[in-house]
Specification:
The protein is α/β, with parallel strands linked by helices and about 280 residues long. The protein has helices spanning about 30-45, 60-70, 85-95, 110-125, 140-150, 170-175, 180-185, 200-210, 225-235, 235-255, 260-265, 275-285; strands at about 50-55, 75-80, 130-135, 165-170, 190-195, 220, 260. It folds into 2 domains: about 25-195, Rossmann fold (3-Layer(aba) Sandwich); about 195-285, Helicase, Ruva Protein, domain 3, CATH 1.10.8.
Length: about 280
């Protein structure tokens, strides 16, 4: 039986779901630019790339778009929440690449590195590049980041065996600036960044997500309401989604199809202008 998200708005899907679904990708200038930078780096065989941005700016969604664009002709591995030791990181990478089992028992870091290197070489022999993406990389220990540096050494005379993209919040840049990680920082070939959307982009973002579910005429946000949401969310796509979904839930319960600024404030619990201003400032902290 077909699932219906909202009978009142005639929506089969939630236009503001929190899951980073590539089908809902909004091609803002900055997102397209970051995606283009990373895609070019991959095609050029760059060994080590960085993507940073605040919480909720769309980093994970970009990583999924990247993986889907290269998966047909590359080995790909995606690691989330990498709170690992150096050996655990290697084990996770071997697992994610689905490297065939070794003929000998793997116990040491060197054994895992040798086994991974053999796999990467054999993949290169059949024309397949290997791409590793590590999300939430700001959570990585210095020990694990030092292992990343060692992995960037896996290469032939002409090219890197493993292309690595670290994705994380701005704290990752602070970590990489530490003296003990200077060798790793020097190896960054490309650094792309993401920020919040401006008010115009927020308007286009909201409308594009509503239109994606196929029935955009059943609900409309006035520009003044979008401005309220933009200010509360500081332009962060994830927060925009959360606020818009809250507004939709309230609108359905009250049988409202036109979202005004006053309705948005009421739905989000900040009806008085003074309270809205305070709430907006708190969201930006």
């Amino acid at each position: 039986m077909k699932n219906i998200y909202s009978k009142f708005f005639n929506m089969d899907l939630n236009p503001f779901g929190e899951t980073p679904d590539p089908d809902f990708y909004y091609a803002s200038h900055q997102h397209n630019r970051a995606l283009g930078i990373l895609d070019t780096a991959i095609r050029q065989g760059k060994g080590f790339c960085l993507l940073t941005g605040e919480v909720g700016t769309g980093k994970t969604l970009l990583s999924r778009l990247l993986l889907s664009s290269v998966s047909n002709h590359s080995n790909t591995a995606l690691i989330l929440y990498p709170r690992f030791s150096d050996l655990e990181l290697l084990q996770a990478i071997v697992d994610e690449f689905e490297v065939p089992e070794s003929e000998v028992e793997l116990k040491t870091t060197k054994a895992y590195l040798d086994h991974l290197n053999k796999f990467l070489l054999s993949s290169l022999d059949i024309g397949k590049r290997s791409i590793l993406i590590i999300d939430e990389a700001q959570a990585m220990s210095v020990e694990a980041l030092e292992m990343i540096r060692l992995l960037t050494n896996l290469e032939t005379k002409t090219q890197k065996l493993l292309q690595i993209i670290l994705i994380g919040q701005p704290e990752l840049e602070v970590t990489l600036a530490r003296p003990e990680l200077r060798q790793l920082k020097q190896r960054i070939s490309v650094h792309a960044t993401l920020q919040g959307l401006d008010n115009i982009e927020t308007e286009r973002y909201i409308k594009s997500r509503i239109e994606h579910v196929g029935n955009g005429n059943f609900i409309r946000f006035e520009n003044s309401a979008i401005k309220v949401i933009h200010e509360l969310a500081s332009g962060m796509p994830r927060r925009i989604n959360q606020l818009c979904e809250s507004v939709l839930v309230t609108a359905e319960s009250k049988k409202v199809r036109l979202i005004t600024s006053d309705f948005a404030r009421q739905a989000l619990g900040c009806k008085p202008k003074s309270l809205f201003t305070v709430f907006s400032k708190k969201e930006k902290v």
